[in-house]
Design brief:
The chain is mainly alpha-helical. The protein has 2 domains: 14-76, Orthogonal Bundle (Arc Repressor Mutant, subunit A), CATH 1.10.10; 82-222, Tetracycline Repressor, domain 2 (Orthogonal Bundle), CATH 1.10.357. The chain has 11 helices and no strands. The chain is elongated.
Length: 225
């Protein structure tokens, strides 16, 4: 039976609990940064705070402390690790399927038609994609919910590829050359984010039609006059 924390041990924040739990399971700082989608510098800053709160001076001491007092990790204790691991694997598989589908679209289609088809492939317009997005939402709730804003990055398609594709469309004459690719990507990301969240709340055909119309209207505005 584990001991209770003494009065000299400060309570860790949820993020600190999460990082401490990862390190206690043997993860390196670089791995923690990658898995939690934060910088290594941020991980190290949190680690300094964790050391100060727990009265530890090294990762070895930290591991010993949290193993003797698992309650320090809150909901990130070992007993929840298996469930989170299964969830992470389901999300990974969903993202892999989605990324392969997006890659295939750009092989088969060109111009704004490819972008239009990619967006439709991402949106939760059927039960399977709604299920995948609910898994992603659950996973993000365990980390940083704000990251869902980068919708394409959530499905394993970070901003670099869409930005390159936008620039290619401009060079090909399929998109107005004076547009700022970063602004186009940001606007598309916001439209997709709104559609994802809206469709998960109301998956009706009418709701889908409304969001698709907004996206199509914006895409049409990108074409050369």
């Amino acid at each position: 039976m584990s001991e209770e924390p003494d009065e000299f041990v400060e309570v860790l924040t949820e993020r600190e609990q999460e990082i401490a739990a990862c390190l206690a399971r043997g993860a390196r700082i670089a791995t923690v940064a990658r898995d939690l989608h934060i910088s290594e510098h941020t991980v190290r800053n949190h680690l300094k705070s964790i050391f100060a709160k727990l009265g530890t001076h090294s990762q070895v001491e930290l591991v010993e402390r949290v193993r003797s007092l698992p309650s320090l990790l809150g909901r990130f204790s070992e007993e929840d690790a298996d469930e989170r691991g299964r969830l992470a694997e389901r999300v990974r598989q969903a993202n892999l399927r989605q990324r392969e589908q997006l890659d295939q679209v750009f092989v088969e289609l060109e111009g704004l038609d490819a972008m239009r088809t990619v967006i439709r492939a991402v949106l939760p317009l059927d039960e399977a994609r709604q299920r995948d997005w609910r898994l992603r939402l659950k996973m993000r709730a365990l980390h940083d919910p704000q990251q869902l804003r980068d919708v394409l990055e959530v499905v394993g398609w970070g901003p670099d590829r869409p930005l390159r594709r936008i620039q290619e469309l401009q060079r090909e004459g399929a998109m107005r050359p004076e547009l700022d690719p970063a602004e186009v990507y940001s606007r598309l990301r916001d439209l997709i984010h709104a559609a994802v969240m809206g469709l998960l709340e109301d998956p009706s055909e009418e709701s889908g039609r409304r969001y698709l119309e907004r996206i199509d209207t914006y895409l049409e505005s990108l074409a050369p006059q």
